[in-house]
Amino acid sequence: MLGLLGDEWTLLVMQQSLLGATRFGEFKSRLPISNSVLTARLRTLTEAALLERRQYQQRPERFEYLGTSCGRSLWPVLLSIWEWERHWVPDHAEPLPNMHHAACGAEFGPVTTCRSCGQLVTGKDVVPQWGPSGSWQRSVPSAATRRRSEADQHAAVGLFPQTMSVLGNRWGFALLVAAFVGGRRFTDFQAQLGAPPGSVADRLATFTANGVLVETDNRYELTEKGRALFPVVITALQWAQRWFAAPEGPAVVLTHDACGHRFTGVLACDRCSRPLRGAQVSAVEKL
User: In 89-196, which ranges are continuous DSSP H helix?
Assistant: First the structure.
């Protein structure tokens, strides 16, 4: 999973696919990305079956890229990122739109509930531990995809700039999961991830600068802002386990402290409490 989504451009291309882009020109107009990089990412996502390449014109040949079941099922991750950015990242060029739930007709925010007992759940309510496949070395590609240039980093690259700076890196998501499981020291993260020291230091510096972690006496703790990424972590882990399950079991095992059951998160509407479905969620158009 990290090999697919642990890259900033890949995340941004899938973001735009979920927001309705299907053709090369649509992706290109929405992202400050070169033709060669976009072509490479579309090819990778097609080979990984997150997108389907379909011809829509013969002369000249033209193709569109449609989300597959695997790709479309990323919507809980996208929705969780959207909600986190709305609450924790104030420096958007324009405020992110509110969300509308078609089932109840209200503007809403997503909340995480336990599938077993239905209770609202935060990161403090779940006991995490490494599972049988909880080693990230094999999940992270040995060769990184192209890093964004300094000019790209200052461009307006979509709806979720700070999330991308945190997660849009092949080691970022793994380190965030390790922090939720209990990693606190530099050596904890390096040992669990098998990452080069420079990569661990870079991610810790980014997380600290963005207020996701705070460092005291060489120990790193999740801040309130960092703990609020819990729905993003849960939805991403569940997506990966559904589509890219390791034969020996999940990378992380979660137990809901209140009910004692293995935890599976379900996003629900904070207004009507019903479980959310991707087709029922839309952005509120600005007047």
Answer: 150-153, 161-167, 172-181, 186-193
- For 173, 183, 193, 224, the CA distances from 186, given in Å and listed in that order, are 16, 8, 11, 20
Q: What are the pLDDT digits (tens) for 118-141? A: 999 999 999 999 888 765 554 454
273: its two tokens: 């409490």
CB 105 within 8 A of CB 282: no
Q: Which CATH class is domain 76-227?
A: mainly alpha
Residues of 172-197 as b/e, b for ≥16 C-beta within 10 angstroms?
Answer: bbbbbbbbbbebeebebbbebbebee
Beta carbons of 24 and 162 less than 8 angstroms apart? no
How far apart are the C-alpha atoms of 126 and 259, rounded to whole Å?
10
Crossing angle for the helix pair 172-181 and 230-243, to the nearest 10 degrees: 110
Domain residue spans in the chain?
76-227
Q: How far apart are CA 44 and CA 132, in angstroms?
A: 28
Other residues' Cβ atoms within 10 Å of the Cβ of residue 258: 15
Residue 151's pLDDT band, with cuts at 50, 70 and 90, is very low
CB 167 within 8 A of CB 285: no
Q: How far is CA 109 from the centre of its chain?
A: 17
Predicted TM-score (pTM) above 0.70:
yes
Rounded CA-CA distance 67/243 in Å is 14
d(CA 130, CA 135) in angstroms, rounded, equals 8
Going by C-alpha positions, the residue among 244, 264, 44, 7 that lies closest to residue 147 is 7
